[in-house]
Amino acid sequence: MKKLIALSAIILCLAAFSPASKKHQNDQWISLFDGKSLNGWKVGANPESFKVEDGAIVVNGNVAHLFYDGPVMNHNFKNFEFKTKVMTFPGSNSGIYFHTGFQEKGFPSKGYEVQVNNSHTDWRRTGSLYAIEDVKEVYVKDNEWYTESITVQGKRVTIKINDKTVVDYTEPENLERSGGNKDRIISNGTFALQGHDPKSKVLFKDIMVKPLP
Predict the structure, then answer these.
(1) Structural domain of residue 142, as residue ranges?
(2) 52 and 96 inside one domain
(3) pTM value?
């Protein structure tokens, strides 16, 4: 009996370190950025606003947007958890779009923007669901890495800064927005990182997504 128990323990141990088990453990969070290049990402106007240095995407330059265009979910997400590590520099502004689509120039008209801004003149601070549910408080400092996460499940959007919930918004049913905001609604689409202006410098790394049913 003792030999049988010992054998079972060995089998369980081997299974835990098997490739199939490792794949199962890693199949929830999926990396969207390889830390070395912009492979899987696409930018229209002003591509020089984005580069990769020391494992991070450096955003600095004229208005530009870097869209995820890679194979994960065919870059088309509906329900998901998204997280990335971010560092802002004094006076900088950026943003993370979701449910958006590639746009050659200008600020994306489709989807929502989650603000990245700890000290820019714009009063909407990091974690704001931009112009929908805004955050005035500053939860993190410039020159320090922090984690910004976004969860979308149905009509509900939850935004966290270092695991602290700063926005919990549920979009009303049958919502219709007017004018330039008509496509700023829950739908589906990809992610984009924003280059806001030449004086802004923001770093992104460890960009991850977990698709949800």
Answers:
(1) 32-211
(2) yes
(3) 0.87
